[in-house]
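Case 437 in the screening queue. Each case pairs one protein sequence with one candidate compound; here the compound is iron/sulfur cluster. For every case the pipeline is the same: read the inputs, emit a complex structure as tokens, and attach any notable structural observations.

Predict complex for case 437.
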Amino acid sequence: MSFLQKTMKGAKIGHFKNTENSPSVVMPIPQEVCISMSQHMGPPCKPVVAKGDTVKVGTLVGDSDAFLSAPIHSSVSGTVKEISEIVVANGSKCQVVVIAADGEQTVDENVKPPVVETHADFVKAIKNSGLVGLGGAGFPTHIKMNPKNLDAVDTLVINAAECEPYITSDYRTMLERTQDILDGIAAIKKFIGIKQVKIGIENNKPKAIELLKKETANDPSVEVCSLPSLYPKGAEKVTIFETTGRVVKEGMLPADAGVILDNVTSVAFIGQYLRTGMPLVTKCLTVDGDAIAEPKNVVVPIGTRYADVIAFCGGYKKPAKKLIMGGPMMGILVYSDSYPVLKNNNALLAFSSERAIIEPESPCIRCGRCMNTCPYQLQPRQIELAAQNDNIEMLNRLKVMLCMECGCCSYVCPAKRNLTFSNKLAKQKVRAASAKK
Ligand code: SF4
Ligand code: SF4
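Case 437 output:
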């Protein structure tokens, strides 16, 4: 992979930021919430409550001893109705804690601002808060804040690109919770020993750029970087390269390049948590798509079922053919609106059959557009062929594991080839082959 270009490639896609001027609204407490035990990258948590238990807002309901994990808290006060299972988007089953809300929203007595004086205190507090990457990845934040090479980390990159179409929840965070972001930055700088902060924002959000530039004008360590509106500027390696010029090579973590990368809403949450001690129990998500009657940004208790969120947005104005958790480029298709909001859920999109069109594939015309668009300069058509032939050696040579499944190659392909899907399959084949070895 060569990074000789000054800016990484990508695709010019429609923005459809229909809700950018919709201030976030807090949804009334639903009758029940369904809190998933799998809301982070890593092994799921196990319920630590039982049917009939009384819980309050902020009560611990799920936990795990696994390193790659984050605790889960109740978003409502009420009674545990049942511990059951749901089938998640990838077809696997996952435990859920269903809580009947009493509508009182009584706060758990253990919720109080953490005492943080050292880096170890900070990491412990972030772990206890249940924070995971709120931009969609769901990586437990306490692990990011405790890199092995702490002394070599000198830069905090805040990912505020929000490059996926439709989603504006991070944008609203920037406009509405600016002080939380500044408090989060101050805490990370203090406890990690960060020297410089880069905030990467796509240039289709001039108001957010202007506001954050104004609010950080007196701090020379903070730079607000205006990024070109070229999808996917919010991808981890891309944001780091665009804001710092540093390359996170294959197999490297951002910390290996001296960087901690965090999503802007995650940083705002850190600021808020250190002040209040309230763990991660609510989420702001953009609800949009042509099947939604009243698109808006909604703050909901985590575990609220999609059907309740959509009802709050005026319901469906036409039958929804496709329901997506996240953005249209990298989001996950969900099969039922009984599915609950997760910590890393930044959007819920519902499209009718007029918009959810899957065009038929035709043969490759060898135009090279897929390759010329890929930010990592991969060769998606060659990967597709190698996957079809089960040629694992070739897939490794083509560096398929670098593919972040951003969807650019499929988006630009005039033959409508579903290259991203073939890349996903190809990666599964490589993983299976290496597990077999
Ligand atoms: S999906 Fe993978 S191969 Fe396609 S453009 Fe994105 S990173 Fe490149
Ligand atoms: S963009 Fe589509 S048609 Fe063009 S080379 Fe790639 S796969 Fe073939």
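Case 437 observations:
- The mean pLDDT is 95.
- The first strand starts at residue 25 and ends at 26.
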